[in-house]
């Protein structure tokens, strides 16, 4: 044999010898030396691919992703099926001719390695050829019955004992290719009968179900963060760098690792990945992942950050995307741990082009870059008013609490919503709101609203009930034109007015608020359309 370029592995009984005698290392931790990009600084990932950052919950997502174009149905059906760039050819005939046999040496790093692995009776068996040197950087190799030992000054002597691993390395150009020299022995005993081996520029992993595939050094940290073959499973394809802007992906049994300028991050198969796929993957508004997936959140949830936002999932809410603009306010509320909880809707556009989003404990509404939080208690009334499309419009303030009896409120373009534990939430708007302000809001005799504003009364009037009384307008349009406000009706007049048939009865609408007995008014009185009503000796006259 004149050189390793003509080495052939699978010859009859050699298969059994390799499978029985492969070096067994229990899991990833058993590898002798991790590839340089994962454990040292020696290897250099492809120049177009930056070193990935460690995935974690991390800061808020970055600015919106680049302009995106949705995938067509045909593209979605064939996604990732394009052929990767051609692999380098193996050593050329000229290079093989330069490799010279080593004769007369009693000992070398390769013979020492062979002896350390049991010699002729060990995993490699006896030599079937002499040692050859003259490889790149002064390296050497020697073939044995059940494998090969390769040595270089920087990586030491390493044994290759799995034929599939060797063939994949050979397909990428042996030590002259991007993988470079091996930095560990072949290790087996992985899940589902898998084996692997680390090289200067990456690793090769194989399993009976997937075959052997190379994993670039820049991808390995993301795969490690996703629990290696125990998490994402084994690689099932070569690196594919046909994505937009020259970015790359590599498929694994249970997910995909993506490369972009933000780093390499795994997207495991599951509800988060399904939501991302529904939005056209990296071509949608979410863009590329900027973190790995993190789980163990409240209620068994998971999340992952992307260029344009984040996706969060829980068993109760499903997977929902949160836009980057709203993420900061959600984060300030404590993410899913805070009062808002998990998102329950996707971001939606409002009539004016701004956006909103619903959560378990409230909603976020954005206006000109200013994001407001609506607590769930106030949201119930807002929903009854048809959200931002109704008469209230969008929120103009944050919710304010600490009101009388533990109440809260929030201002909107067209009114204010008030809430208390005793009354729930109701909106006060229009002339009724002006009358409510005149009566000192919830601090006055009216207290909190107990109904929404109701209109369609006689003559176009409107009204609203409160804990301590009611507010009425005769004609909402006319009263607004005349600068009038809603008039309060309090007890004892309210019950008597109701008994008379409200505004449809003989008393008609109230024209002024009630006046009570004082130095100038001996009896309680209130002016209605039907006249002045006084309470004398328990009777209205």
Instruction: Tell me the helix content.
Output: 10-25%
Mass-distribution shape: rod-shaped
- Assign the structural class, choosing from mainly alpha, mainly beta, alpha/beta, alpha+beta, or little secondary structure: alpha+beta
Order of strands side by side in the largest beta sheet? Answer: 1-2-3-4-5
User: Could you list the spans in which at least 5 consecutive residues all have pLDDT below 50?
Assistant: 1-97
Radius of gyration: 38 Å
Strand count:
30
The major sheet is characterized as: 5 strands, antiparallel
**Termini Cα gap:** 125 Å
Q: Which percent range describes the beta-strand content? A: 25-35%
Key phrases:
single chain, 541 residues, alpha+beta, 5-stranded antiparallel sheet, 26% strand
What would your notes on this structure say?
With 541 residues, the protein is of the alpha+beta class. It folds into 4 domains: 1-66 and 91-256, no CATH class; 270-368, no CATH class; 375-488, no CATH class; 491-541, no CATH class. A 5-stranded antiparallel β-sheet has the order 1-2-3-4-5. A 4-stranded antiparallel β-sheet has the order 12-13-14-15. Strands 16-17-18-19 form a 4-stranded antiparallel β-sheet. It is rod-shaped.
Summarize this, please?
The protein is α+β, with helices and mostly antiparallel strands and 541 residues long. The chain is 18% helix and 26% strand. The strands form 8 sheets. The chain has a 5-stranded antiparallel beta sheet with strand order 1-2-3-4-5. Strands 12-13-14-15 form a 4-stranded antiparallel beta sheet. A 4-stranded antiparallel beta sheet has the order 16-17-18-19.
């Amino acid at each position: 044999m004149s050189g390793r370029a003509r080495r052939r592995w699978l010859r009859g009984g050699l298969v059994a010898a390799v499978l029985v005698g492969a070096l067994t290392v229990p899991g990833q931790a058993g590898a002798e030396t991790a590839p340089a990009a994962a454990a040292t600084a020696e290897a250099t990932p492809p120049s177009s691919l930056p070193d990935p950052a460690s995935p974690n919950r991390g800061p808020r997502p970055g600015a919106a992703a680049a302009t995106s174009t949705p995938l067509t149905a045909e593209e979605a059906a064939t996604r990732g099926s394009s052929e990767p760039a051609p692999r380098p050819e193996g050593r050329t005939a000229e290079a093989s001719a330069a490799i010279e046999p080593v004769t007369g040496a009693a000992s070398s790093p390769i013979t020492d390695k062979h002896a350390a692995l049991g010699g002729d009776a060990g995993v490699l068996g006896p030599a079937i050829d002499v040692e050859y040197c003259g490889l790149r950087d002064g390296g050497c190799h020697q073939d044995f019955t059940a494998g090969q030992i390769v040595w270089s000054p920087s990586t030491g002597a390493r044994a290759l004992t799995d034929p599939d691993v060797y063939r994949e390395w050979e397909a990428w150009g042996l030590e002259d290719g991007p993988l470079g020299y091996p930095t560990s022995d072949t290790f087996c005993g992985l899940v589902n009968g898998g084996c692997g081996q680390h090289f200067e520029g990456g690793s090769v992993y194989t399993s009976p179900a997937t075959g052997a595939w190379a994993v670039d050094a820049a991808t390995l940290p993301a795969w490690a963060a996703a629990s290696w073959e125990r998490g994402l499973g084994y690689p099932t394809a070569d690196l594919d760098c046909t994505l937009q802007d020259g970015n790359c992906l590599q498929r694994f049994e249970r997910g995909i690792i993506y490369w972009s300028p933000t780093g390499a991050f795994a997207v495991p198969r599951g509800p988060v990945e399904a939501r991302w796929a529904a939005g056209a993957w990296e071509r949608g508004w979410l863009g590329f992942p900027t973190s790995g997936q993190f789980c163990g959140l409240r209620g068994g949830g998971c999340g992952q950050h992307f260029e344009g936002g984040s996706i969060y999932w829980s068993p109760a809410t499903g997977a929902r995307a949160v836009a980057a603009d709203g993420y900061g306010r959600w984060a300030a509320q404590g993410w899913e741990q805070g009062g808002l909880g998990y998102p329950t809707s996707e971001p939606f556009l409002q009539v004016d082009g701004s956006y909103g989003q619903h959560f378990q404990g409230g909603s976020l509404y954005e206006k000109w870059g200013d994001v407001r939080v609506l607590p769930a208690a106030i949201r119930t009334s807002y929903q009854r008013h048809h959200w931002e499309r109704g008469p209230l419009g969008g929120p103009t303030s944050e919710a304010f609490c600490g009101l009388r009896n533990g109440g809260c409120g929030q201002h909107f373009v067209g009114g204010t919503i008030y809430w208390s534990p005793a009354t729930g939430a109701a909106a006060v708007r229009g002339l009724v709101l002006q009358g409510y302000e005149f009566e000192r809001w919830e601090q006055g005799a009216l207290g909190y609203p107990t109904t929404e504003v109701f209109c369609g009364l006689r003559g176009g009037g409107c009204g609203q009930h409160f804990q301590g009384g009611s507010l009425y307008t005769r004609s909402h349009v006319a009263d607004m034109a005349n600068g009038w406000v809603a008039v309060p009706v309090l007890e004892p007049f309210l019950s008597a007015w109701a008994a008379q048939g409200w505004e449809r009865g003989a008393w008609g609408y109230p024209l002024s608020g009630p006046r009570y007995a004082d130095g100038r008014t001996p009896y309680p009185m209130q002016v209605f359309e039907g006249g002045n009503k006084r309470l004398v000796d328990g009777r209205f006259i």
